[in-house]
Specification:
Number of strands of chain A: 16
Distance between the termini of chain A: 114 Å
Structural class of chain A: alpha+beta
Radius of gyration of chain B: 29 Å
Strand content of chain A: 25-35%
Radius of gyration of chain A: 31 Å
Strand content of chain B: 35-45%
Number of helices of chain A: 3
Oligomer: heterodimer
Number of strands of chain B: 30
Distance between the termini of chain B: 104 Å
Largest sheet of chain A: 4 strands, antiparallel
Shape of chain B: elongated
CATH topology of the largest domain in chain A: Jelly Rolls
Shape of chain A: elongated
Number of helices of chain B: 4
Helix content of chain B: under 10%
Helix content of chain A: 25-40%
Chain lengths: ~270, ~400
């Protein structure tokens, strides 16, 4: 009798233990699912806020491109007060035009050219000055993955045109052109520039208006061109930094550089 | 006669072997350029042979002066008749075989040593009487393909460039210094440099492409902006005005004309603006002998600073002598004329085809002469341009 009672209690205890374990497992699963759902909802909300802030920042850039003014402006003052979910009083656009002794172009594909201004350009009345600063200018170009040659054209106010052709180090792309030198005085770039070419101050003179650089390569690829001198260059365009903040506190900042007018290589180089 | 010569040669051959009869043919090498001929030729590969009608016992040898270098002045061929060991035919025709890289062919002119395209490459000789016979016959090398000259520009072609520059150059006009290059440049004030030449292959004969001689062959160029694409860019990004009446262009700027357009000096002068880019969304015809330029073909001081773009063809009639401006067309046709060149003062860009049927009777002159004018690009900078952007998230 005692043995039977013991066995019965044992069985009841086992069942209870199994039930408890099943309940614990079910609870764990339920809690995990609930936690995951909450986390996903939060991430989704955050992503939505990010997208909203980024879109608003880009809207600020677009508005700044149209306004063509300098300074710092809130979204409200730019007429962007009705952006849904954006704290437009805390969102702003900064349009800066500052000359610098170093400049790096946007990425240029093979056969593209960049019009670099050595005389002041007035974007409001669309006029180009005629005076440049006679100083040494280092041109930096190429990278370990794309190493092109350059054709460089100096356009001067007396209608004279001076040209250079330069090969990357260790390669002959343009026949009879000199080679560039190793990099010693270039603006920092990622990836690093691999070639440098100096145009002496005596050739720049004080009457060079434009310096036009064309990328020459038999391979497809792109490079930035770096310019470095001692004295600041004239402005090369507008830099717009747009910061947008959502009402939930998510902030995004984007920067856009818009160059001054660029002469397309296809319209500049004689072809038939 | 033949019997007598054989007997004489046989009798002398036993006693004096120096009686090998010879024919010496010599003369200048000259360049035939249509109506005019010039001394000397320039080539990287010259082949010259005298071929006897009956070759037995005959040994021709030819020499060129100078033996090295690309510019050649004269030649001398000696044809030896071996009447000692063989029995060459004493009366026969000798024919000339001459070719030089860059020229169509070489020939003896007819009448002899006259500047003409008529030729007679046979010389009948008779060495029956022995001894040496001397003939003076210049060889003319014909270069009849029209050629093009640029000034102060760079040049790029998507396909191959074949533009043989002759040795002897006649300047197009006072803008042309007569230098023997595809691209010449101004060495006096305002001093200019010639630019780079790229194409899938480059053939300018023995002339360098320019004084700098910068070139890239086997070059595949990428074209990302065409007149059509620029028009689309303008419509989306730039300030412009669509016009249907040229007289409505009163301010410097960028204008779009829908459909075909014919321009002449009369309707050009209806435009009161001085600096403009006009995009013709259709074909553009320039119906004027001297378009937008002074009667001396050089003076552009009163010319409008214009760039004319066509999404179709730009057509010049065959009477147009000179036009000032930047002409950018998907295709460009210069018209057909056997004795009239075309000068462009500004620039010319043909994207897909350039149909040039212009010629001069004097092939020493370039048939198309394009003088690059950087100032027009400066004047049109706000209009004939795009913007570049660099975007990054901070």
């Amino acid at each position: 009798m005692t043995g039977n009672s013991y066995n019965g209690n044992m069985k009841k205890g086992q069942v209870l233990l199994i039930v408890i374990m099943l309940l614990a497992t079910a609870l764990t699963v339920a809690l995990t699912a609930t936690y995951k759902s909450v986390t996903e909802t939060q991430l989704s909300k955050l992503e939505e806020e990010n997208q909203k802030a980024l879109a608003a920042a880009e809207a600020g850039i677009e508005k700044a491109l149209q306004s063509k003014q300098q300074g710092t402006f809130t979204f409200d003052s730019l007429g962007l007060s009705n952006l849904s979910g954006i704290d437009t009083s805390q969102s702003s656009v900064e349009i800066s035009n500052q000359g610098n002794a170093a400049f790096i172009t946007p990425l240029l594909q093979k056969d593209e050219q960049y019009t670099f201004y050595l005389a002041n350009y007035n974007a409001q009345n669309k006029t180009l000055g005629s005076n440049s600063t006679a100083q040494d200018i280092n041109l930096c170009f190429g990278s370990s993955s794309f190493n092109p040659a350059l054709e460089i054209t100096l356009v001067k106010s007396d209608s004279s045109v001076k040209r250079y052709a330069v090969n990357p180090q260790g390669q002959t792309i343009i026949q009879n052109a000199p080679s560039s030198s190793s990099v010693t005085n270039c603006p920092p770039n990622n990836p690093s520039f691999t070639n440098q070419y100096l145009i002496p101050a005596s050739y720049i003179g004080n009457n060079t208006q434009l310096l036009i650089v064309r990328v020459i390569s038999n391979q497809n690829g792109s490079t930035r061109i770096g310019f470095k001198a001692t004295n600041p260059f004239p402005l090369q365009g507008s830099t717009i930094i747009s910061t947008a903040k959502t009402q939930a506190g998510v902030e995004k900042k984007v920067q856009l550089f818009q160059s001054y007018p660029q002469i397309p290589a296809e319209f500049f180089v004689t072809s038939f | 006669m033949f019997f007598l010569w054989r007997r004489a040669s046989t009798s002398t051959s036993n006693s004096n072997p120096t009686l090998y009869p010879t024919v010496a043919i010599s003369g200048n090498l000259r360049e035939y350029l249509g109506a005019l001929c010039f001394n000397n030729i320039s080539t990287s590969n010259l082949s010259l042979n005298i071929n006897p009608q009956y070759s037995a016992g005959i040994t021709p040898t030819c020499g060129i002066t100078p033996p090295t270098g690309q510019t050649k002045y004269s030649y001398r061929c000696t044809v030896v008749f071996d009447n000692q060991r063989a029995k060459p035919t004493p009366v026969q025709n000798l024919s000339l075989s001459a070719s030089a890289y860059g020229y169509s062919f070489g020939y003896w002119s007819n009448p002899n040593n006259t500047c003409t395209a008529n030729y007679d490459n046979f010389l009948t000789v008779n060495v029956s009487s022995g001894g040496s016979t001397v003939y003076n016959k210049d060889i003319y090398f014909s270069l009849t393909t029209p050629w093009i000259k640029l000034k102060d520009s760079s040049f790029s072609k998507i396909v191959s460039l074949t533009n043989i520059v002759p040795l002897n150059i006649t300047p197009y006009d006072l803008d042309d210094n007569g230098n023997r290059y595809f691209i010449i440049n101004n060495s006096s004030h305002p001093q200019t440099d010639p630019g780079l030449v790229t194409a899938t292959s480059i053939n300018t004969g023995t002339a360098n492409v320019s004084s700098k001689n910068w070139w890239v062959a086997s070059y595949s160029r990428i074209v990302s902006t065409s007149p059509q694409l620029f028009l689309e860019y303008v419509r989306s990004r730039k300030e412009y005005q669509t016009i249907a009446d040229l007289s409505s262009i009163t301010k410097n700027g960028l204008y779009v004309w829908q459909g075909d357009l014919t321009l002449n000096n009369t309707n050009l002068n209806q435009i009161t603006a001085s600096n403009l880019v006009l995009i013709v969304n259709g074909n553009l015809s320039i119906n004027e002998n001297q378009f937008n330029i002074g009667s001396d073909y050089r003076n552009t001081s009163t010319s409008k600073k214009i760039a004319l773009l066509s999404t179709g063809a730009i057509n010049f009639p065959n009477t147009t002598q000179c036009a000032a401006g930047i002409f950018i067309g998907q295709t460009i046709d210069t018209g057909s004329n056997d004795n009239q060149g075309l000068k462009i003062k500004g620039n010319l860009v043909a994207f897909s085809s350039f149909n040039n049927q212009r010629k001069w009777s004097d092939k020493s002159k370039p048939v198309v002469f394009i003088v690059f004018q950087s100032q027009i690009y400066l004047d049109l900078l706000p209009y004939l341009s795009v913007y570049k952007y660099d975007w990054q998230q901070l």
